Every structure is written in C-alpha cells, then in structure tokens.
Amino acid sequence: MPYIFNIIPNDYLRKKTIGFYNREYIKFNQPENPDFLNILKNTFGKENNLVLEEAKSTVIKILLEDLPHVIQYNHSKNIRNLICLCVPRAKSLKQYNENQLLFIYAVREALSKIDSISDGTDIIMRTINTRTTHIRKPPSNFDNNGDLPYPGILKNTCTLMVDKIRGQNLILIDDVYTNNVNIDEDCIQALFDCGAKNVTFYAISKTRN
Questions:
Q1: Secondary structure letter of residue 25 according to DSSP
Q2: Is the full-model pTM beyond 0.85?
C-alpha cells in the first residue's frame, strides 16, 4: 500500500495537494534504493534491453499494486472519472529514443489493466528542453541544456491539451518526487491553471526530507 504525504504550497504551487509514493529514494547504488528507476530512465542510452525490460516490469508491478489504492482514496472523497497523466521528461520528446521512454510505456501498460481510470499520457508533451536536474556530473558528450526549474516552466516548455484537462479529476504520475526541486509542484499548478478540477499526485519513489 502506498504512503501518503502532503505537497505544501510554495512559490510553485498555490494549493495543498495530496501525494502518494511507494518507497524512499535514498541514493543510487545504496542498499534498498530503487535503482531500477535510474536504469529505466536510460539517460545516456547505454542500458541493454534485458535490463530495461526487467526495470519496466518492476514499475508495472508497483503501479498495478498502488494505483487501485490511489483510485480508492479518490472515490472515498467522491472524486471519480479519473484520468492519469505523467510528468514529462526534461528534454524535448523528439530528443529521446524509444528505449528512453519506457517509464511512460510502463504507465500506459499498467493503466490498460486497471478499471476506473483513463489513459491521459498524451496530455502533456515537452517541446523545449529543460535542465536534467538529477545529473550532477554529466559526461562531456551530454548536452544538458535548458533552464532550471522556475515557476511556470512547464507551461513555457510543454504543449498541454487544455480541453482534456479542464474540469477533470487527474492523477499525475512521476518516477521520483524530489524534495525542494519543485518540478512536480510546477506541473500540478500548471494543471490547475488549465482548469483541472482535482489533482492527486503519485510517484514510485520519494527522496528523503
């Protein structure tokens, strides 16, 4: 069963939002850390297909276990007709290969097996590069261009299908919620600005406070 937490209003987010997560993110290569999420990102495109498929299967399994609880929580608040969408990756979609988009494919596969929720993973699409925040020392051949997070960056760098957001109850999914980076807060606020009726957040993992 996923853990629940509050996402607190700040310069990026004007409304308290309920969040869920499956496990803590400690540090890459540390015991019990969900390293499969780093593998699935495949940021440098060097992971082999077998390892990627293993990581994808792990994510699907977790989503199939956790999302029904998130749905049940919403139903208990009389929030129904849920649509699920994902926080986009940092770079323009056209910059990624198929084997670097396996997280969103995992979400889509899980959603196809869950009742009471619709697939809205095409609602947000990154069109302008932003900085990849989780890479501290990128290799010399990795062009980590784009802005760091600022309030409103998602609306300035993404195409949003406003007609599919306005008046809807949404579950926003990310792989890792990172405290104090505010990427997810900014995305939640963008959805509210587009007229979302309700937004619940879910991440596979959450960094420690």
A1: E
A2: yes
